[in-house]
């Protein structure tokens, strides 16, 4: 069984969704405090929005690094991944 759902955007779009998908979408919307229409808009916008070329990625990485507690131990994740991969299971 399929259910037609309208997403309230400038142009109405009817999407044919099965009940399981619609229920999952409704649960996701409720968890985010949105209506189903708002959740659909958010999902579509996040999915089709281009990567911002003007984003200062280096600056963002430095800001994230600055959140690290001073004096904390830094571990090279490459070594951990290799050790896990090479471990004889």
Would you kindly provide a written description of the structure presented here, covering whatever features stand out?
The chain is elongated, with a radius of gyration of 21 Å. The chain is an alpha+beta fold. The termini are far apart. The mean pLDDT is 80. α1 (19-31) packs across α2 (36-48). It contains four helices and two strands. The chain has a two-stranded antiparallel ribbon.
List keywords for this structure.
89 residues; alpha+beta
How many helices? The count is 4
How would a textbook summarize the main sheet? Answer: 2 strands, antiparallel
* Residue fraction in strands: 5-15%
Distance between the termini: 46 Å
According to DSSP, the number of beta strands is 2
Which oligomerization state do the chains in this entry correspond to?
single chain
The assigned structural class equals alpha+beta
As residue ranges, the low-confidence spans are none
Helical percentage = 40-55%
Gross morphology is: elongated
Provide the residue-averaged pLDDT.
80
Return Rg in Å: 21 Å
Please trace the helix and strand order, writing H or E for each element: EEHHHH
Strand line-up across the major sheet: 1-2
What is shown here, in short?
By secondary structure, the protein is an alpha+beta fold. Helix content is 52%, strand content 13%. It is elongated, with a radius of gyration of 21 Å.
Topology:
Layout: E1 2-7, E2 13-18, H1 19-31, H2 36-48, H3 57-66, H4 77-86
Antiparallel strand pairs: 1-2
Helix pairs in contact: 1-2
